[in-house]
Amino acid sequence: xxxxxxxxxxxxxxxxxxxxxxxxxxxxxxxxxxxxxxxxxxxxxxxxxxxxxxxxxxxxxxxxxxxxxxxxxxxxxxxxxxxxxxxxxxxxxxxxxxxxxxxxxxxxxxxxxxxxxxxxxxxxxxxxxxxxxxxxxxxxxxxxxxxxxxxxxxxxxxxxxxxxxxxxxxxxxxxxxxxxxxxxxxxxxxxxxxxxxxxxxxxxxxxxxxxxxxxxxxxxxxxxxxxxxxxxxxxxxxxxxxxxxxxxxxxxxxxxxxxxxxxxxx
Length: 266
Description:
Number of domains: 2
Number of strands: 9
Number of helices: 7
Helix content: 40-55%
Structural class: alpha+beta
Keywords: Membrane, Transmembrane, Transmembrane helix
Order of helices and strands: HEHEEHEEEHEEEHHH
Largest sheet: 9 strands, antiparallel
Strand content: 15-25%
């Protein structure tokens, strides 16, 4: 595969990282991985006990961290001839690294990274994959390595974001959904403020609190609905259901306007 294709479809530059994953790992896998890195790669490991950066990963510190016995662990930096591979210790059940495509600038850089993926796969006897940042199971894997077998997924037509007009168009629903989320949050705050004002006015005028509900009832109703809508909308947003967020936001905004109209003018 030529370098131009790799740059456009694997190492595209859009501000995001590429993640490296080994799934379904255990402590034994972590031990093998640490031995591989310590013996074959240049390492910068911060020892939280000594406060110094060391050239070897301390297994005991890693295992104590993964077992919840210590919090003295930061990430590990692996230096691969100009390519910085960062390892994150998010949990014992997967090994996660990341790189920036800004440091992959030639076919030689690509080969160095693939050799690292092969080393890890052969060492652990597991699949190693390079994915887009924050990979989800249903998304495509850019590179999959099983031992010495390598597969590339170049089905997506990806270009640098500032050149890729399709990417800009595809980002429009996300940006629009953010606008609707902002409006929904503002509507919620707008309807909560009168509730607070009514409560403060009743207290200052020494009016019984039993009257509070009757006075603030319209705002309580709409605020409750808007709170639920906000929760659902934010949940959908984080699941990347941007169009659903836009539709839900549009319906909620229209209903709020109708409610306000009927409540004040009829």
